[in-house]
Structures are given as structure tokens and as C-alpha cells.
Amino acid sequence: MKTSFKSDIEIAQASTMKPIVEIAKKIGLTEDDLELFGKYKAKLSNEVLAKIKTKESGKIILVTSINPTPAGEGKSTVTVGLADAFTRIGKKAMIAMREPSLGPTMGIKGGATGGGYSQVLPMEDINLHFTGDLHAITTANNALAALMDNHLQQGNELNIDQRRIVWKRAVDLNDRALRKVIIGLGGPLQGVPREDGFDITVASEIMAVLCLAADLKDLKLRLSRMVVAYNDKKEPVTVGDLGVEGALTLLLKDAVKPNLVQTIEHTPALIHGGPFANIAHGCNSVIATTAAAKLADYVITEGGFGADLGAEKFLHIKARSAGIKPEAVVVVATIRALKMHGGVPKTELAKENIASLTLGFANLQKHIETIKSFGLPVVVAINKFITDTELEVQTLLEWCRRENVAVALTEVWEKGGAGGIKLAEELLAVIEKEENKFHPLYDLSDSIEQKVRTIVQKVYGGKDVEFSSKAKKQLLDFEKFGWSNLAVCMAKSQYSLSDDPTKLGRPTDFTVTVREFKPSIGAGFIVALTGEVMTMPGLPKKPAALKMDVDENGNAVGLF
Amino acid sequence: MKTSFKSDIEIAQASTMKPIVEIAKKIGLTEDDLELFGKYKAKLSNEVLAKIKTKESGKIILVTSINPTPAGEGKSTVTVGLADAFTRIGKKAMIAMREPSLGPTMGIKGGATGGGYSQVLPMEDINLHFTGDLHAITTANNALAALMDNHLQQGNELNIDQRRIVWKRAVDLNDRALRKVIIGLGGPLQGVPREDGFDITVASEIMAVLCLAADLKDLKLRLSRMVVAYNDKKEPVTVGDLGVEGALTLLLKDAVKPNLVQTIEHTPALIHGGPFANIAHGCNSVIATTAAAKLADYVITEGGFGADLGAEKFLHIKARSAGIKPEAVVVVATIRALKMHGGVPKTELAKENIASLTLGFANLQKHIETIKSFGLPVVVAINKFITDTELEVQTLLEWCRRENVAVALTEVWEKGGAGGIKLAEELLAVIEKEENKFHPLYDLSDSIEQKVRTIVQKVYGGKDVEFSSKAKKQLLDFEKFGWSNLAVCMAKSQYSLSDDPTKLGRPTDFTVTVREFKPSIGAGFIVALTGEVMTMPGLPKKPAALKMDVDENGNAVGLF
């Protein structure tokens, strides 16, 4: 084991990338199929996306995890390392991952691009402006807001009730002072005064819409359905009513094309779209995942947070919408995180603690049961940390064997793809051996209440759901507006299976309270809000920005 | 003469671009010198910018105009057509122009990329997100705002007076409802409540800073000097005090590289930076202009609005800061606009009117005198419109001869470079024949009042300047802060030589009132505000966005 470790950016900057044109060759694409962004990034052209539509699809593997803890799970790292492992054993593999938001990068950390020797490159670019997708989404989001406020100002033909405007503005930054604002001040020439607020861009419905759209045409249709406000009769007013879906689609015409990059080991990766995993579905774009499946035999993709949120939403929302059938699911766990689920505080994690570790298995167990209930083969990936003891690892391995679930120790952070070969082999074995009976746990024709109840009982292991009187009243409206057959997108704490973030492990007998619904009609789901949901993060006392710089050659310094 | 005309976008989309790599070859650059953005756009790499620094500079020609009127002057069109004309007569020519803002595109019009057969391509991309420069500036602008509000929230170590914060947020949109806002509402966890406002991105001081920076190092230095607020002792608080100049430079490290595109006739063009021409200096970046001069023998560049604003600022601010010595200045005029200056209303412009035309010459005359007073050779370009009569054109040509000023009729809108050959030849002649005694009209060591007075008297032809009591008080502070030796940047109506937009032609005997100063310490100038200055435009009743769309192949529709 190494005694000193390089930082992620040191490893990334010491790696040699191949020209993206060469990476594209591996998946049968020529330079003409690409829209280059420098030498190491490219978008897939509309022509190539159309051309590959008729090809047969490869196998899609979903990577998810136990409930996240401050100890870290490394789901993105395992996703990257696993794809490299498939490449090493001679399979044509690709990654389909989310692209990071700039806001958190300026705040606490970046590194939504894997870690150690399992990273996608160029990590500085991907974590900064990348190919401009998020900027295009911010612009489209705010153009819509400006056009709506202009509609108010110019006579309000649609009779929008300015107290019932639900479309917020967005910035791709952590800016708490913009959470609640009043706009339109300064007199009659400066707009109509009203309450407003800003979300971080990844929380914009446009991000969810872009990630669920099948193509440009579907994108426009979804955009036109987005609800921006209610009129004086309390009926929804949509983008289509404002007549600006064409302009928004124009602003997004390039953002909708997936971005091709590479891992440290030169495995091709599509990094595209990154919606929040609470008020949205937390998965990269359908266009990227389906394109990757046309271009490779194995596609490794992931969902946000733990399996109760990310996998549930991948399987119920993204897979259903895109007609995707995953072959198998990887549940990532770490010894450290399982010990936290077993009651160990963060400061004590370096010490061996078999009893707490064993207690923590309950969290993993629930997620395994959930994946199996979807009819899908599952493999547990133990993402190794340097502080893990031999006995701890053996205890987890044995528990998995007793539970009759496939398991593999992975060392992808330290060893790249070589550290993920066991996991890749386990996956090939379960895909070969186990029957795949993938099916959703609820039908779209179920009532909204029933859909929420199914998720709470079958995915979270809860007893029941309570709906606030506001939520109940909203459901009556939704029935009237014809929204009852949409999917449900749960906004719940990622830290617990329940809606109480302090309940680690495997809580039972709990009731989840839905205080409010938020319709995302363009995305095609109704968000069920449980507890407080943060759609605009703040900056810490000492933001990461204070250490950032550029060296004399124009390279990023202090990014992570 | 043609009887039917294609729209700008029809002409643009019917044109065949060459790969940008081929365009780069014309100016001695290889693919390795470029950072490609698709096949037809590229940024110049830091390496090539460093490499060409020691080369000898070509000749820089500035294109300016009479005071703009609603009749249109076509300065950008002449700039593009003139460069094409130079190419046609065998000269190695390049364009250095501003990049457009997205906001006005969604509102009334785009087309900051020339017109007719004198356009830069791909015009749709350039008028939408282009290479993301404006998005990077918006992000840097708003990151700074978020970091400052976070500083307030986290204890306010610098004792910033929240009533004296001068740094505003920005969006690259026309959004009047954001002109005056209150932020930080919602209680102690949501930031410190205060008045705020949004400017359009091109009005951000960061745009001016990026356009005046000599290189990445100078950019960082300028960013660190920007004043964001005043503390409880009324002393300036800068970006450097907040310690975030490194992070802002990181966010701008790619935006600072100039963008290479081409004209319809394949002349190379650097389109980079686009600051407002009222509260900023209205010229494309110094980096682009100086790089173009290293790569070509003739560089055609322009300044915003008429010669009283654009040329004055080019010559006093940009040229001084960058050490640029222009060879000659083109003053663009149209028969239509001169008739408006002579008193003809817009509806009557199609009718021949020699008397009013002759009256309008006075405006052109003043600008010619001004350029000559800078010691520079001048050529008048008559930008032909279809409604101009032969007699009108002859009358203007004769007047120019009587005034002893070089003149050329240009038909670049209709004929591309072929319509600009006369103008190119006139320019070559005056550069050859006339002595260039370029000198600024004021010295930086003059007092701020004196600098303003010099501009008003020598450039506008005014009698005197009045300073409000607020402005006088500010000057005392500036003296204390050591800002008195900065340049002056006038914020004045573009429509008149005076500060009264209704006074067309050549007003005399007027006094200009400076109501307030706005220090732009990073840019290196003090803005003198006369009258109302719009830093956030609004949308019209029927915004252009309503007609925009994307066709089934992903191409822009209805952009202009």
C-alpha cells in the first residue's frame, strides 16, 4: 500500500490524455461525427445521434450506493474504475455520467469526476465551464423568466396571477442571498414588483427536461409543457402559452448534445446533464445513456445519492421514460460508511470496529432487497479505503456470501481499472447466471398517493405516508389538470432511508410526511417534498474559491 | 441593382464556410495553435499568443461613424466588407470586432455581425452562446457577488457597509425586472438583506477589464483592483481585499483567449469581447486587436456608437492602454442618416432631399475635425443604401472634396468585399500620403475635470461642463484614493454630440452636465455619467424570441 497519496488534481494533471478524436475511433466515430471543444472534449453531432439510432443497444449497468454519509462512498469513482476494468478485460465499455455544477466547486469541493486513478479528464474543464451546457440552461431558464416578467409588464394578456408565479430564476453558483428576493422595484418602467427567488441551475426544471428528452423534438415538447405560473382562475400557464418554447429550444440546441471525454485509462465517457437528486431525478441525460449503449457493449451509469433515491428514480423515471432495461445494479458500500450506519462517529472511523460494522450491514441489506424487488441482478462493490482492516473486509465479504449476494472488493481509487476487474467479472457472472425480470414497483396509472406509498413502503421500508392538508388539496387540482398519471419524484433526505436525516442504518416503522407537491410537468413528474429541500446552497466561511488561481501558463491551481 | 433582397440569416446560411483550420493557415497558424469549437470556430491558444508577441505589428485601421440614428449606419458591415476588400486586393487583412450580447438578440435584433454580403460566420453561433465568453464573464461577475454576500453573512471582517455596495449582479439578458431588487430576504440563514440590482453582462466591469487586459497576468491584476464596496470608514473595498482575484481569473482563463472565425469571403476575423460603449469603452479586446496586428498586415477594427464616443474611447482609453497607434480612421456615414441629422423624419427618408442632406453634413464635419485633431488620417465611407439617389451621393462626394477629405462610396452590403475596394484604396493612399501625428487630446496627469472638459470641448464641440455637487464631492474622494490620473470614460447619449439626444446635426454652445462619476478601477477609468444610462435593457412588447425556433436538423430559425 502506498504511504503518500497524490491529490486528485495532481493525478489528473500528471495523466496524459489522448486526442478525443482517437478516443472516438474506439467507438467507431470519425472526426466528422464530433464537434470538437479543444483537443480533449467533443460533442456528438446531431447527425451521428440520428445515425446510431437503429443500432442494437449494449448492456446498461447502474451504479448506486448505500445511504451516503460524511465518510464518503465513492460511487463516481467506482463507476469510472468499473468502466476501465471492463476495457481492461477486453470489453467495449463506456461511461454515461452527470456533469458537475460550478457552484459547489467554488464552495467546498469539486470532484464530481471520480477520484484517484479513476477519474474522467480533463477534470479542470469538466468542473469549470466544460462545454457550456449549464450556462445554456441558466440562460434558457432566465430568458423564460425575463419573457414572463415582460409579459406581465406589457399588459399580462394571459392574466397571470403575479402571486402565483412558480418559475424561479437560476445561477450556477452557491448564492444564499438570492434564495428570497423582491424584483421589479423602482417604479412602473422597471417591471411589476413581486416576490421571486433563485435556484442553483441544476435545480432548474430545464435541467430535468434536458436530461429526460429523447431528442430535440421531444425537448421542445417538454419545454412547452413546463408550468411557469397560474392565472387568475388558478389554472396553469405554460411555456407553450407564452409561445417561447422555440426560443428556449434554440438556446439549448447544442447543450442537448452529449459530451465525449475520456478516463485516465482512455475509456470513452459521455458526461452530460446533472439534475438534482432531490427535486429532480438525479441521473445524466437519456440521450447520453442511450447513445452510449448504441456505441458500446457495456455502459456504466449512475444515479445520485443512495439507492433509495438515485436507483429508484433511475428505474422508475429515467428507465421508464427512455425504455431502458438495465442488466444489473452495483451497490457501492464502504467499510467506513457502514460503520457510521452502525453508530460510529466520523472521528472514530479509522479504528477497527466489527460490531458497529455488522450493525451497519442493515442499511446495505435494505438496498439489496430493493434492487432485487425490481427484478434486477445485484452486485455489492466494497470500495476500499486505506483504513479498512483485513478483518473488517472479510466480515463484510462473508456477510454478503451468507446473504447470497454477489460481492467484489474494488481498489479503483488506488489502482484504476486494475482494481475493478473482480467487480467487472462478478457483474458478467450475475448477468450471465441470474434471470433479469426488471419491472417497476408502481404503474403510472396508480394514483399519486399510491405511487408515493409504494415507494415509501417498498423502497424505504417505511410504514405509511402522511399527506399535509396542502398536499391533499394540491392532489385535487392535479386530478383536474390531468397530471395524476405522471411519475413521482421524491424529495427526501439522502442520509436516511426515512425522511429524518438522523436515522441511519435501517430504520423501521416510520411514517414519511409529504408536506407539499411541486409539479414538473415538462420533466413528467410530480415532486413530493418531505422536509426542507435546498434548491440554492450557500458558501462556507472559507470558500474553496479563496485558494483558486491560474499559473503563468494558464493552468488551474487549487481547484481541489 | 437587385430587386429582391435576402435576409442576413438567409445569406449567412447560404454561404459556405471553410474549416477554421484552413482560415488559420492564411495567417500562419497550424491546428496546434487553435482550440477548436466545432469546425468553424476556434480560440487562439496561450502558446500562440505568447509566440507572436515579438513579431512586428501590422497596420490598424479604426472604423467609426457619425452619430447613429434610427436610419442605420452599418459600421460593422463596413468593417467586415473593408477587410474583405483588402483581401481582394492582395493584402493580408484581418478583422478585430466585438462579440454580441445574447440579451438584445432575444429582444429586438441580433446582427452585430455585419450584414448582407459583409458578415462574419457562423452568425447564429456568434449571436447565441458563441464560445461561452459572455457566460464566463456572467459567472465571474456573479461569483464575486456571491462571495461578497457570503463575506457579509460570515462576519463581515472587512467591515463592508452594506448600504455602500457597488458591485451588482449580471445576466446576459434584457430583464428589466432585475434592475432594482432586494436580496437576502427570509431570515438570518438566508443572507443579509440589502438593495441590489442586475446589469446586462456587457455592462459588467469584468467585460471592460477583460477587454483592456494585456494578458492573463494583467487580467488578474486588474480584477484585484476592482472596487466592490466601501467600508464603514468609506474607504474602497476591492476584489484583492476579498482575496478572490485568483478564482475570478480561473473562471476567465479561457474567455480571455480571442475567438477566430471568418467572413463570408473567408477573411480571418477575431471576434472577442464587447463592453458597453456608454459606461465602458465599447471596443473589442486589446488581446484580439494586438494579436490580429501580429498576424496580419492590415487590421480593421471598430469602436461603439459614433466617433464622439467610440473613436474617442478607442483613442484615449484602448490605444493608450495597449500602446496601439492606428494608421487611419474611417468615418462611416449614410445618406439616410445625414438626412435625419438635417431634420428629415424617419418616414420621409426614401425621398430625395438635398437641402436636408446638406444640413446634415455638419455632423459628419465635426467628426472629421475630431479625428484630424488626434493627428490621424481620415477617410469618409459612404455606405450605400438602395434608396440613395445619384444626386444625393454626388452632393456628398463633392462636399467631401471641397472639405479636402478622402471619401469612397462603398457597396459592401450588396457586393461584399468587391463593394469596398475603393475604400481600401483610398485608405492605402491616405496612409501613404498623409503624415500620422497621432496624439491624445488630454494627458492622464490632467485633473479629472480637465479631462472631461477637453473631451466636451474638443470632441463634442461643447462650450463647457457642469459638475453636480455630488460629482464634485466624489472628485475629492478620488483624489484621496489616488484615482485622479485614470482615464475618463464618458457615458453620454450616442444620438447627439451633446448630452441631449434630441439635438441632432452639429449642436453648438451647449453645456454638458456630469451628474455623477462611477469609478472602474480595474478597467482603469472613471466613468462620467451624463443623463440616464441604461445598464439593463428591457424587452419590447413582441420580443424576437417569439419567432425563434430550431428546425428538425437542429438549425436556427427566425434568429433575425
Automatic annotation (TrEMBL), chains A, B:
<dbReference type="InterPro" id="IPR027417">
    <property type="entry name" value="P-loop_NTPase"/>
</dbReference>
<dbReference type="GO" id="GO:0035999">
    <property type="term" value="P:tetrahydrofolate interconversion"/>
</dbReference>
<dbReference type="GO" id="GO:0005524">
    <property type="term" value="F:ATP binding"/>
</dbReference>
<comment type="similarity">
    <text>Belongs to the formate--tetrahydrofolate ligase family.</text>
</comment>
<dbReference type="InterPro" id="IPR000559">
    <property type="entry name" value="Formate_THF_ligase"/>
</dbReference>
<protein>
    <recommendedName>
        <fullName>Formate--tetrahydrofolate ligase</fullName>
        <ecNumber>6.3.4.3</ecNumber>
    </recommendedName>
</protein>
<dbReference type="InterPro" id="IPR020628">
    <property type="entry name" value="Formate_THF_ligase_CS"/>
</dbReference>
<comment type="pathway">
    <text>One-carbon metabolism; tetrahydrofolate interconversion.</text>
</comment>
<feature type="binding site">
    <location>
        <begin position="69"/>
        <end position="76"/>
    </location>
    <ligand>
        <name>ATP</name>
    </ligand>
</feature>
<keyword id="KW-0067">ATP-binding</keyword>
<keyword id="KW-0547">Nucleotide-binding</keyword>
<keyword id="KW-0436">Ligase</keyword>
<keyword id="KW-0554">One-carbon metabolism</keyword>
<dbReference type="GO" id="GO:0004329">
    <property type="term" value="F:formate-tetrahydrofolate ligase activity"/>
</dbReference>
<dbReference type="Pfam" id="PF01268">
    <property type="entry name" value="FTHFS"/>
</dbReference>
